[in-house]
Amino acid sequence: MHQPPTEPRHSIYYDYRVHAPWLPADHPQPQPRQTVVIVGSGPAGLVTALELARHGVPSVVLTSELQVSQGSRAIVFTRRSMEILQQVGVAEQMTAHGLPWRFGNSYYRGQKVFRMEASHDPDDRFWPMLNIQQQYLEQYLLEACADSPLIALRWGNKVTQVRQASDHATIEVDTPGGSYPLETQWLVAADGGRSGIRSALNLQMEGASYEGFFVIADIQIDLLFPTERLAFFDPEWNPDNTILMHREPHGIWRVDYQLPPGESPEDALQPDSLKARIDAQLAMIGCAGTPWTLDWCSVYSARTLTLPDYVQGRVLFTGDAAHLLPIFGVRGANTAFQDAQSLGWQLAFVVKGLAGPALLANHSAERVGAAREIIDEAGKSTRFMAPPAGGFKLLRDAVLSLSLTHEFVRPLYHWRTSRPHAYTHSILNSPGDDNALFAAGPAHGAPPQNVRLAPDDFLLDHLGGGFDLLYFTEAAQVPDPLQAVVQAMRARGVPLRVVAIGAAQPVAGADVTLADPQGRVRARYGVPASGAAYLLRPDQHVCARWLTLDATRLHAALQQALQPVLPVA
Ligand SMILES: Cc1cc2nc3c(=O)[nH]c(=O)nc-3n(C[C@H](O)[C@H](O)[C@H](O)COP(=O)(O)OP(=O)(O)OC[C@H]3O[C@@H](n4cnc5c(N)ncnc54)[C@H](O)[C@@H]3O)c2cc1C
Prior knowledge:
The protein has 13 helices and 28 strands. It is of the alpha+beta class.
């Protein structure tokens, strides 16, 4: 029988709440077949549940533990992640408690050799990066789930077996009160990097694992440095290796250091070893003797692995269960949000019969493409942070030593921060639009660009939850033929809103009118004249844009996005 720990986990700064397990004896058996069961209450599972709920699709979330994540784990969240979290209703809590930042400093042998500056445009609501511990993120997501009547969370429920049929999956769930079977039309495997479901289906990941281990130690300490990323290459106390430091909320700092080759993770986590290294790091930054207390520590190694297909019959993989990516450049949870956002709307459309299974194949193709792009980028970061022996190390060391005297090599220190993947070649993109004719603005597959409309009012605040047609007009109404297409789509159940941009007065036929007196939205979207439009998918990525829109083209673009024709293999 599954017995998850019932003692609250230790933490200096976070009060763990132990939830009561969901026990089969307290509920009628056998359970009815569910629409969607999500295994895992990490970032991927919870954002998927919230996205599905936005589209009116219920889900049951099963999670083996009784409390949120052990330790801080993911601590850096990107702007795009915040935009996704805004969509599911937790951005405010994150911003209220997190630490925003945008600078990074790289040091080589004690000398500062590179200062990274992430751009922060006044048109963006969120900072490029926000630091907050993963426990808080999970707590805010759980609170949002609790507010939804469409999400049922079962604590202490561990999935132990999976069987598939053509139209459903059956799982065996073990709990502190015994096990029970559960059927579901769709099973979302968001059960993390060690996914038992991935193993049960005997699926192999593709890619590479890198040599070398890193220790993560979170310490409570009073340091007066600003919230900026600090990277130290080849420091005196840890020759040839790399150390990272990040400020976290609640008086916590993360010290993340590479181990010399041959040292085992078990030895590295011994209290004496941790103390000696953290003291050495503090001495190096001029803070010798500052008192500190360890909160949590762990060891990780970099891997760049992905499943080649995230759709396996009725089982859909997402987050770390689908891929294992190095955390350098803040991948990990940031990638999981994009996976979950993509899966949420595409699964919802299939469940509701608004699209065929090809939409799920598209989800897989898009997100596997994203993982492969990240693997390529993160592989470069990983080879710079922890170069394998031979040529890579020779090159990295040459960059380090040249950087002391030569400005031109310093940008090579840039850590290639996680960025949203553009679905440039998605089959959902409209082939007959004017994408190629635009001189500016987000192109096919790109996420939208935000624009400040008033001191605390941004374009993205008004978008999301379905398809959005951004229609640029100064006229009094949306032309009748366009309105007819919109009405016909809505009659089929397709969520589609018309956002008129430009007119000073409400535009008839639009759900929202946003005035654009200085033409700032127009400029950002490369719109030369009234009558132009963008069609955004429910995950806000662009799937069509036109310099002049007519009803035939709008209809064709929506058809393309809803009933994509898969390329012949
Ligand atoms: C030690 C460590 C440090 C990390 N540091 C960073 C970092 O600094 N930056 C960063 O971006 N990322 C970091 N990560 C990665 C980040 O935490 C993950 O990428 C992120 O949590 C992925 O979310 P997920 O929902 O896919 O998986 P997870 O967060 O791992 O969630 C998996 C969920 O599945 C549940 N589960 C597992 N098996 C079962 C089962 N059989 N039945 C029911 N439930 C099950 C678990 O209880 C959990 O709720 C770190 C990870 C670890 C382990």
